[in-house]
């Protein structure tokens, strides 16, 4: 009788412990896979955004930029979503060439921080100014809102030529 009770109690307990251990053993790989998938999704959205800037595609920028984006130019000037998109649409800010490197992506749940270095040829803040080549560090912060990755913060900082 004691053996039957022991089997009834210990066997389900053993199965539960084995199941929990197997789930915990799989979690790091599952999290890593999710993280890599998230990084790829955000990298794609980030590239779409830069292509949209190059092509003056305001519709795509309106989809990528969050409504309350914190958009900061290298000068320190803050812009709203409407202002940042209008700067591209109007030609006040015109990107002619863009090369990125040193891209790093960090995932924090539904928020992703993407940093990198860029070398670009652009005309900034005045449609009559001449294009110049600039080197900058940038930080883009994305958040998953309503099922889509949205740029919630953008910051660029000038750096000396490498």
Q: How would you briefly describe this protein structure?
A:
With 162 residues, this protein is of the alpha+beta class. Helices cover 43% and strands 39% of the residues.
Side-by-side strand order of the widest sheet: 2-1-6-5-4-3
Strand content: 35-45%
- CATH topology, which one? Nuclear Transport Factor 2, Chain: A
Radius of gyration, in angstroms, nearest whole number: 24 Å
- Average pLDDT figure: 80
Tell me the major beta sheet.
6 strands, mixed
How far do the termini sit from each other? 79 Å
Highest-level CATH class: Alpha Beta
Q: Please tally the helical runs, counting DSSP H or I stretches of 4 or more residues.
A: 3
Number of domains: 1
Helix content: 40-55%
Order of helices and strands: HHEEHEEEE
Low-confidence runs (pLDDT<50, min 5 residues)? 21-28
Count all strands and give the number: 6
Which CATH architecture?
Roll
Give your account of this protein's structure.
This protein is of the alpha+beta class and 162 residues long. It has one domain: Nuclear Transport Factor 2, Chain: A (Roll). It has helices at 2-54, 58-64, 81-90; strands spanning 65-72, 78-79, 94-108, 111-123, 132-145, 148-158. Helix 1 (2-54) runs antiparallel to helix 2 (58-64). The chain starts with a helix and ends with a strand.
Which features characterize this protein?
162 residues; alpha+beta; Nuclear Transport Factor 2, Chain: A; six-stranded mixed beta sheet; 6 strands; 43% helix; globular
Give me the secondary-structure topology:
Blueprint: H1 2-54, H2 58-64, E1 65-72, E2 78-79, H3 81-90, E3 94-108, E4 111-123, E5 132-145, E6 148-158
Parallel strand pairs: 1-6
Antiparallel strand pairs: 1-2, 3-4, 4-5, 5-6
């Amino acid at each position: 009788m004691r053996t039957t009770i022991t089997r009834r109690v210990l066997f389900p307990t053993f199965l539960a412990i084995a199941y929990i251990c197997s789930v915990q053993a799989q979690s790091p790989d599952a999290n890593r896979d999710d993280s890599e998938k998230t990084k790829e999704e955000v990298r794609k959205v980030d590239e779409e955004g830069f292509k949209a800037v190059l092509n003056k595609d305001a519709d795509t920028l309106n989809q990528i930029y969050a409504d309350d984006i914190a958009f900061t130019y290298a000068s320190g000037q803050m812009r709203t979503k409407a202002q940042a998109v209008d700067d591209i649409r109007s030609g006040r800010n015109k990107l002619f060439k863009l090369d990125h490197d040193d891209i790093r992506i960090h995932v924090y749940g539904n928020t992703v921080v993407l940093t990198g270095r860029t070398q670009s040829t652009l005309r900034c803040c005045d449609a009559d100014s001449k294009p110049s080549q600039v080197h900058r560090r940038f930080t883009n912060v994305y958040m998953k809102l309503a099922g889509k990755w949205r740029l919630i913060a953008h910051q660029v900082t000038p750096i000396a030529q490498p």
